[in-house]
Amino acid sequence: MNELGRLEDLPADYVQALRQLNLVPLWPSLRAVLPPGKPRPSTQPTHWSYQALRPLLMRAGELTPMEKAERRVLVLANPGHGLDNMKASSAIYLGMQLLLPGEWAPAHRHTPNAVRMIVEGEGAYTTVDGEKCPMSRGDLILTPTGLWHEHGHDGSQPVVWLDVLDLPLIYYLEASYAIEGQRQAVKPGRGDQAYAAAGVVPTPLYTRADKAYPLLRYPWAQARAALLALAADQPDLQAVQVSYVNPETGADALNILGFYALMLRPGQTLQLPARSPASVFHLIEGAATAEIAGQHFTLAEADTCCAPGYTSITLVNARSDQPSFVFVADEAPLHRKLGVYETRG
Ligand SMILES: [Fe+2]
């Protein structure tokens, strides 16, 4: 590819005359916005150790009362995007949130979609659209765009969860805002009870549910059991992986980010293909290593790492006698809808 003219090759008075009319020449920046062959992501392979961040999160609990924080969160920020920009990747925000016994995080709703992956503690709950969702380690709880949600805690130990949002994308679109609300009345009925078994959905008098998000809580006990059953049923299956989906439609659980659970068999090395979306890996259970673009990370339980798109990733189960379980989030639904999804190699 031939070198293009640079800005400094142009006479200063010409550049100045352009700028006064809100004009800029394309050719000095053309290669930066359309790089040859593959994007140049700002997203860097990054690892966040839970053991290292936990004391700092607990200290936030001492330093900042709930009424001064509203959401007590340490953002997992990718240095490639600048720490203050609150991005794990161009579309993914990650945060570790702490709720102490007796605390309540007030009701609100917002345009970005969120999920919570529960990291530790018992007794907390999130009420989403009037449905009270208990929180246990490994559970995935959706708070889709526009739905009211609030968090409460009736237990006796701190509760921590990983928030995954499409906030950077919605903010980039200048479509990000929140509305404060009153405490929600809890309605009867729970999606995780109504959709308790695969292959059957509620159909009262032949009528299917018309909710956009019929299932809000995906219990880890069920996802884990599904992975173990799949692994046992298909001993030659290389990647023991399930997707979190809308049980009525089979579509991705949310519109923009995708969510998966992955089981690494004892001692397994799993090569994931290079794909266009960035992805996030959070170790629910076990011990693993991740190699991302030549960087090696050791993942202990509750550790999180992220990978840019167009990068091959190797995950290794560090345990030879037990499976390890990984929660994965990525930008695949967004890339598919935009028509830019690719797999390479
Ligand atoms: Fe929220």
Can you describe this structure?
It is a single chain. The protein has 8 helices and 22 strands. The protein has helices at 12-20, 30-33, 50-63, 66-69, 167-172, 191-194, 220-233, 332-338, and strands spanning 46-48, 73-75, 93-99, 104-110, 114-120, 124-128, 131-134, 140-143, 149-153, 159-165, 178-180, 217-218, 240-243, 258-264, 269-275, 279-285, 288-292, 295-299, 304-307, 311-317, 324-330, 343-344. A 6-stranded antiparallel beta sheet has the order 1-19-16-21-14-13. Strands 2-3-10-5-8-12 form a 6-stranded antiparallel beta sheet. A hairpin with a 2-residue loop joins strand 17 and strand 18 (295-299). It is globular. Residues 108, 110, 114, 149 line the site of fe (ii) ion (FE2).
Task: Looking at this protein, list some descriptive labels.
345 residues; alpha+beta; six-stranded antiparallel sheet; 8 helices; 22 strands; 18% helix; binds fe (ii) ion
How would you concisely characterize the structure shown here?
By secondary structure, the chain is α+β, with helices and mostly antiparallel strands.
- Count all strands and give the number: 22
| Beta-strand content bin | 25-35%
Helix content: 10-25%
Biggest sheet record: 6 strands, antiparallel
Helices and strands in order:
Layout: H1 12-20, H2 30-33, E1 46-48, H3 50-63, H4 66-69, E2 73-75, E3 93-99, E4 104-110, E5 114-120, E6 124-128, E7 131-134, E8 140-143, E9 149-153, E10 159-165, H5 167-172, E11 178-180, H6 191-194, E12 217-218, H7 220-233, E13 240-243, E14 258-264, E15 269-275, E16 279-285, E17 288-292, E18 295-299, E19 304-307, E20 311-317, E21 324-330, H8 332-338, E22 343-344
Antiparallel strand pairs: 1-19, 2-3, 3-10, 4-9, 4-11, 5-8, 5-10, 6-7, 6-9, 8-12, 13-14, 14-21, 15-20, 15-22, 16-19, 16-21, 17-18, 17-20
The structure holds fe (ii) ion (FE2).
